[in-house]
Amino acid sequence: MKPCIEVVAIDCLMVRLFEVIAEANMPWMLAATQQLRGAFGPALVDLVPSYTTLMVHYDLTALSPAEARQRIDRALADLQPQAQGSGKCHVLPVWYDLRVGPELGLLSQRSGLTVDEVIRRHSAHEYQVFALGFAPGFAFMGLVDEALATPRLSTPRKRVAAGSVGIAERQTAAYPVVSPGGWNLIGRTPAKLFDRERDGYSLMQPGDTVRFQAVDHAEFIRLGGDDAPLEAHA
């Protein structure tokens, strides 16, 4: 593996490990994250992993750009993938219903599958958490069944309810807080995805895995879910 190092800013470098998004990337990304944290130590300001890249923000008063590149090269010289299963596995209950997942019908129509089959396929896979971003606690997960892959909405919603579960292309995610959003919504989870009292704030971290578990309306409410129609959050 020959990582490509790109300049993002005067004190920030992008390490590109892959060109294509794939679940098989994650063991390498996690190993690279660990190695780079150790290599930079207190000179590291932030390290942001994504599907194929890691952004390294370092302290320019502690390291020159040339020294930062040297540390990256040394850290990744003999990189080996991290063992699978090192992250946590989360099971998120989801109420799949048109009242809170208005694009369920659209996915059914586009895929040629019944709504029940769309739900079954979405909840049958164990998803990899690739990255956090967009909003606090928002975890980008994949990869969804190709039959369910759907482009983002042409016009994003101004407000999406917290807990809303959606699909964009072959990614899936759950909105941790009320926010704008253009993903295709198919249900809602009562899980608390972002909590300022939680260590790390986010329920999920890169390297974790997630399963969505279909529950009925009664169980959703029992677990503390908000069943207000999407329009009520507009």
Instruction: Find the CATH superfamily of the largest domain.
Output: Cyclophilin-like
Order of helices and strands: EEHEEHEHHEEEEEEEEH
CATH architecture of the largest domain: Beta Barrel
Mind summarizing the main beta sheet?
A: 7 strands, mixed
| Spatial shape | elongated
Terminus-to-terminus distance:
47 Å
CATH class of the largest domain: Mainly Beta
Give the secondary structure arrangement, pairings included.
Layout: E1 4-9, E2 12-16, H1 26-40, E3 44-49, E4 53-58, H2 65-75, E5 89-94, H3 104-111, H4 115-124, E6 127-132, E7 139-142, E8 157-160, E9 164-168, E10 171-174, E11 179-181, E12 184-188, E13 209-214, H5 217-222
Parallel strand pairs: 5-13
Antiparallel strand pairs: 1-2, 2-4, 3-4, 6-7, 6-13, 7-10, 8-11, 9-10, 9-12
Domain Carboxyltransferase: 3-204
Keywords: ATP-binding, Hydrolase, Nucleotide-binding
EC number: 3.5.2.9
Task: Give an account of the 3D structure.
The chain is an alpha+beta fold and 234 residues long. It has 2 domains: 4-75, Gyrase A, domain 2, CATH 3.30.1360; 89-233, Cyclophilin, CATH 2.40.100.10. It has helices at 26-40, 65-75, 104-111, 115-124, 217-222; strands at 4-9, 12-16, 44-49, 53-58, 89-94, 127-132, 139-142, 157-160, 164-168, 171-174, 179-181, 184-188, 209-214. Helix 1 (26-40) crosses helix 2 (65-75) and helix 3 packs across helix 4 (115-124). The N and C termini lie far apart (47 Å).
